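Step 1: inspect the first sequence and its tokens.
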Amino acid sequence: MQYRIARAAAALATLLAIPALADDQPAGAAKAAICAACHGPTGLSASPEWPNLAGQHEEYVREQLALFRAQVRSNPVMQAQAQALNAADDQDVAHYYASQTPTGLEADPSLWGAGQTLYRAGDADHGIPACFACHGPDGRGNGPARWPALRAQRSVYVYAQLKAYASKTRYTPVSGKPSPPDQAAMMETIAGRMSDDQMKAVASYVQGLR
């Protein structure tokens, strides 16, 4: 954990090299400037450990920022960053990233086939439903339902999130704070039934989705 925090702090220094935003930039662009250190100026992350935010649904990003700020979603770096934002900022930042275009990545050829099968058909023998039922056949997710877009998402990040769901550590309920999303319990159950190889395969597959 200390290593990840150190890497995020080091990445923050790259902000010094990012040109100042023009006055006519959208409000979200200015507010997202601090996010660029890890997630890139246009939502394409600087490290496979951090998610791409380009093209992510506004509803999902807004919700997650609020959960970070409430310390319900577990991530020390993001919990600290979200403290500088309020609900209006969340909306502006979410709108800005939703307007960006994700860049297609490639799936690992050795994992692509198994990942496609799991994503599209699930694994009935182990009670694992097809991922596309909620995240869509092309990984675009469902904004109003707050199912995130997965297309072109970094496989290292997706794998880490599946592990966190399986161990029930992605969210930590806090008394008096917003509750974890309704989808969290479902994802904890699904990820808990997945093998490590299945997690890696489906994470690689969604990285290659366009």
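Step 2: inspect the second sequence and its tokens, then contrast the two.
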Amino acid sequence: MAKALFALILCLCAVLTSVPAHSASTPKKTLTWSELNQDQRTILAPLSNDWDALDAPRKKKWIGIAKRYPSMTAAEQEKVQRRMQDWAKLSPEQRRTAREGFKSLSKLPPEKKQSLRDKWEEYQQLPEEEREKLRSTKKAKKPPIKPSGLPTSSAKIEPSPTTTK
């Protein structure tokens, strides 16, 4: 799961860094899903359930992608559709994590970014069995997540005093 999320973050980085701003060609107000034209709704269909909750800059970005979509190659169109579908499947927490990962990755120096790309390509070349083995060893090494503010198992929980009338 972590590797898949990391892959999605890397893919989003690639898409977002290759998407030029289209300030003159996009509307000033944010459009609701029903206000998009039929072509835009067809292209952006994987985002339909979340569209109205997106903020203005994200809507602007996706409208720009939809505008360029007809001029993309079939492979580029397929990649855009797959990434939109993958994004739509993420939970809000996974999306937040992906955005945070993107922000931290974008702050890395170019040589570190290239090193990560190289490692990812190396990982992608591994047979599925090897990748599964790496995923399972990574899961085994992760410490359990403890919610903050909750008592640990060694803490003694005192019952609250009851008042009688």
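Step 3: confirm your contrast with the notes below.
The chain has seven helices and no strands. The first helix runs from residue 2 to 18.
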